[in-house]
Amino acid sequence: MRKLCAAKLLGPKRVKSLQPTMEREMSKMVASITSSCFSGVNVSRMLCCLGNAISTSAVFGGSSSTQKQRQEFVPLIKEITKAVGAFSLVDVFPSSKLLRRITRYEPKLKKIHAAADAIMEAVINDHMAKRSTKHDQDDNNDEDLVDVLLDLKEKDDLRFPFSNFEIKAVILDIFIAGTETWTITAAWVMSELMKNPDVMEKAQKEIRQVVFSRNDIGELNYLELVLKETLRLHTPDALTIPRESQETTVINGYRIPAKTRVIINAWAIGRDPDYWTEPETFNPERFLNSSVSYKGLDFQLIPFGAGRRICPGMHYGVAIVKLVIANLLYHFDWELPNGMMPQELDMSESFGTEVGRKNDLLLIPIPYHP
């Protein structure tokens, strides 16, 4: 399933096909910010809305027939993410039937999941009905991720069962693991740029010197350094997904028995002074002339994990963050509200399934006219 997602759904080729969707939603956001220029903008909330808009359009398509489902689905995803990330005594004492009855944690989660499941089932059925009327057409210009998943289901040449159940599981993964992760990263990039005006000036200068189009994003070398440094300091998933050792092994003198669940603290690794000079300082230049990347080849920087279990949505998330930040820095200058100085900007972290900002990022956009 992981290989399927990496190759068919979230790989470089598929991400490229989603560029028009990303740019369309990005243009809407730029227009919205322009209408609010010189007044406060909640950047955190704005990025969250953008993430939901891109995900729903990419997954469900832009058909008016699925508009109602898209509007109902996003709040449910937020509820699921909140419930999964919240502390529960049931997680500490999973065998306690009394706690399960007292907390009502599982019934609540099941109720939310059932509602989300019904919406996804309706969307899948809607797509199947449309496909039956266009069976002989060879036009996939409006193909969304549900269509891609249905193609895989109809081909029936996979090594594992692939029914509507698996399709819905993939959709949930894309929304829960994909959308919030990159919006959190984009918010941290903007936060660090506001905290470090000299870095903001360099990044903005580079972006505005490049003829801005989707094909130019790859030429923004300094923006790449900024993204690496942000992912080092603010790894969205501070703790990696648990893995179970298949056999007893020894790592750095520590004996890990077989069938032990292992969790890696990626957040701590990114701030380890044994690997990073002045680890608490935001310094994108540390990656100049450095081969260290976030693609799982260098274990001192593993925001997406590494090896066969590396996050399949890496290309998707990185592409969106770069596009978003490039647009925000190209079209606007940014100021902190109420005369706040950069060093006064609150950088407190929240704690949950992902490590985002504790408080929303509020900024004032100033339109840029080249």
UniProtKB/TrEMBL annotation:
Subcellular location: Membrane
GO MF: heme binding; iron ion binding; monooxygenase activity; oxidoreductase activity, acting on paired donors, with incorporation or reduction of molecular oxygen
Gene Ontology CC: membrane
Gene3D superfamilies xref list: Cytochrome P450
Alphabetized InterPro entries for the sequence: CYP450_71D, Cyt_P450, Cyt_P450_CS, Cyt_P450_E_grp-I, Cyt_P450_sf
Cofactor or coenzyme needed: heme
Presence of the UniProt keyword Ribosomal protein in the record: no
Positions annotated to bind heme: C311
Keywords: Heme, Iron, Membrane, Metal-binding, Monooxygenase, Oxidoreductase, Transmembrane, Transmembrane helix
Membrane topology: Single-pass membrane protein
Entry-linked Pfam families: p450
Similarity-based family: Belongs to the cytochrome P450 family.
Protein name stated in the entry: Cytochrome P450
Record organism: Linum tenue
